[in-house]
Design brief:
The protein has 7 helices and 9 strands. The chain is α+β, with helices and mostly antiparallel strands.
């Protein structure tokens, strides 16, 4: 049977009183404003402060010397300072509105989750999942997570981490994932579209890279022996992975499907994509022999 979600609550207008109650409960549970909102507020404050500093420097320059060069510099600083202040105020207002607007959206997601048998988790530090993506980088955090409690243990959400390479500095990446429990053998299998640059981020030191049998993919597994992708996955499932540039992992009786970008779970389109992936897992993952 094809999987469908009731998405009406994703677009239904939120009751302000219920949103307020939801916000209070979420804050008491330790949820903090998302990192993107905090970053936007910080950036707007930096621009605003920069404009004020520019105006102060212009005032100091013009008050000390009447020379034409200083006047030109002072006028330039005044114009730049005013522009920075105006731009900073605009950014601050937009960031403040965005931070306030997130709560109705989070509330709608929680209602969607309840209507479809999921628990909605706005954010979670150090997510406890065995997939290889969850071992990458530092400062891991999952957010906008929908966690099921049924026998198939369906879960989907976004996962953010800081990637550190040669130096001390790093940069954040956010990927989305869908996973479901399935009776699988003990060995791990990872199948990724060929040529995906970010596959080098995975820690594959304990796995063996082997011929995939399908030229569209690269494959790694934890035991010796060639891998025939046709014996693991149905053709339609492989087509979906290739078309959408998805990576699949079989690990600890779970199937993980990763997308190397953030997914907006506020939209009906995103939920339809998740349902399509879960349907593909239901019909396309062939239990391999141990």
């Amino acid at each position: 049977m094809k999987r469908t979600f009731d998405t009406t609550l994703l677009t239904k207008a939120a009751n302000p009183a219920q949103v307020t109650t939801f916000r209070q409960d979420a804050l008491q549970a330790g949820f903090v404003t998302s990192f993107t909102r905090r970053a936007a507020l910080a950036q707007s404050l930096i621009v605003l402060i920069g404009g004020i500093v520019a105006l102060a420097l212009a005032y100091a320059a013009l008050s000390q010397s009447p020379s034409s060069f200083i006047v030109v510099i002072g006028v330039f600083l005044i114009v730049a300072g005013i522009a920075f202040v105006i731009f900073g105020v605009i950014l601050l207002v937009q960031a403040s509105h965005a931070a306030a607007d997130q709560w109705p959206g989070l509330y709608r997601k929680s209602q969607f989750a309840a209507a479809n048998g999921f628990t909605f988790i706005p954010s979670e530090q150090q997510p406890d999942l065995p997939g290889i993506v969850f071992q990458i980088g530092s400062n891991p955090k999952s957010f906008t997570v929908f966690r099921g409690s049924g026998a198939d243990a369906v879960e989907f959400g976004n996962y953010r981490f800081d990637l550190r390479r040669d130096g001390p500095s790093g940069y954040p990446l956010t990927w989305s994932y869908v996973c479901a429990a399935r009776p699988l053998p003990a060995h791990r299998v990872i199948l990724a579209p060929r040529g995906r640059r970010r596959s080098s981020f995975y820690d594959l030191s304990r796995l063996r890279r082997l011929p995939a049998g399908d030229p569209r993919f690269e494959v790694w597994q934890s035991r010796i022996g060639a891998v025939d992708t046709a014996t693991l996955f149905a053709p339609a499932f492989l087509d979906l992975l290739a078309q959408q540039k998805l990576t699949v992992e079989l690990n600890e009786n779970r199937v993980f499907v990763y997308k190397e970008e953030w997914r907006n779970f506020s939209t009906i389109k995103a939920m339809a994509e998740v349902a399509e992936i879960l349907d593909a897992i239901d019909t396309g993952v062939v239990t391999p022999r141990s």
